[in-house]
Amino acid sequence: MFDRLSSLVIALTLVAIAAIFAALSGGDPLSIAIMLVAGFVAAATVYSALPAPLPDMQGGSAPPLAETPAISLLRHPDFAHWVDQEKEPLIGTADNIVTIANDAAIRLLGRHIVGADVRTAIRHPAATDWLSRIDGNAPLETISLIDFPRPGQRWTMRTAVLAGSERIIFLSDRSAIDAADRMRSDFVANASHELRTPLAAILGYVETLQEMNGEADAPTRNRFLSIIDREARRMQQLVIDLLSISRVEADRFRRPTTPVDLANIVRTTIAQLRDSEQARAKDIAPRIGDDPAPMLGDEAQLKQLAHNIISNAMKYGHADTPVTVELVREGRRVRLSVSDEGDGIAPDHLPRLTERFYRVDEARSRSVGGTGLGLAIVKHISERHQGQLDIESEVGKGTRVSVTFPLSGDS
């Protein structure tokens, strides 16, 4: 097939050759017939080079184009490879039937979900309702799955609609984030409550003294002032503990690099407690030895850790019973243990002792001046120093709190 310009040149050439031939032959009928044939051939050549006429968009209709079948993304080998690399659960469905699920989804929901209806695979009312109503134009919306797959947990579900009836379902675990949010909310609420209680007592007794206008006798005034002093000190200690736990949490990802001697730190802490006005200072029974315990640590934080553990034993152990403080080497580690002979703690309370503001006996804890933050601070300090905290207790016999630290390389 020639283009238009070539066809026109060929047609004109044919006509010219026919005209020359006719002139040479003297215009007889044969030459005229040859010219007519050449004209028809020229016209046919030009016509064949013209483009095909466009279809009439008003009256006629264009011939239908062949429909290309939609390519399934879920069956593409590269997609299957990507799904296997995803750490969070991911499910692919066609007509609400699970056609592909990665390892995370199978661990979460079970291997039986492949080939099952997705509305029964994800057994949650919110998921079932959304998957039943979703259509091809639905936006990418996040659905909250509360108490899924177990009570107390929360996951989210997002659905991406593909071509035809295919979908991709993404599942994300939000349980840890929700737990952290609840912990922060509880911390603020508990801290506010703990500060409000002594503050209310202080304001109440100050107001009472003001109303007496000096009419109160000396014993009554002294008793009120003693209560104000005790509550003010309790509030002061709470503020100190709140600042301490905030600082420790801020430093938790920074490993200490300063060489310290844990044995010397524990000896110094015991000496300070014995020189204090605490009633049970004489009950401390150290078993430290003379050997050093070199390690990398934050001296101020380790002093606070030792102080909190020993003070707790003094508060909750029975009077005139020993508070035993031991420091023992165990291979490349050193164990600090503090034991008391008190009422002990029931096993169901032990896992929660390091929670902020958690108290086994709230009334008794407040009466001895506890803030509920001591062991929480100990836990964070031990974690920063790569230590392991263990709490053992037997009801009626007492409690033993131990922290094991790694020794430094030159020990």
Mean pLDDT: 82
Tell me, briefly, the overall form: elongated
| Proportion of residues in β-strands | 15-25%
CATH class of the largest domain: Alpha Beta
Are there runs of 5+ residues with pLDDT below 50, and where?
Answer: none
Number of strand elements: 12
Structural class: alpha+beta
Find the CATH topology of the largest domain. Answer: Heat Shock Protein 90
Largest sheet: 5 strands, antiparallel
First-last Cα distance: 95 Å
- Into how many domains do the coordinates divide? 4
CATH architecture level-2 label of the largest domain: 2-Layer Sandwich
What share of the residues lie within helices? Answer: 40-55%
Number of helices: 12
Rg for CA atoms: 44 Å
**What order do the strands of the largest sheet run in, or round the barrel if closed?**
2-1-5-4-3
Would you list the SSEs in sequence order as H and E? HHHEEHHHEEEHHEHEEHEEHHEE
**CATH homologous superfamily placement of the largest domain:** Histidine kinase-like ATPase, C-terminal domain
Explain the overall architecture.
With 411 residues, the protein is an alpha+beta fold. It folds into 4 domains: 4-49; 77-173, PAS domain (Beta-Lactamase), CATH 3.30.450; 192-249, Helix Hairpins (Orthogonal Bundle); 252-406, 2-Layer Sandwich (Heat Shock Protein 90), CATH 3.30.565.10. 47% of the residues lie in helices and 18% in strands. The chain is built from 12 helices and 12 strands. The strands form 3 sheets. A 5-stranded antiparallel β-sheet has the order 2-1-5-4-3, with helices on both faces. It is elongated and about 155 Å long. The model has no long low-confidence stretch (mean pLDDT 82).
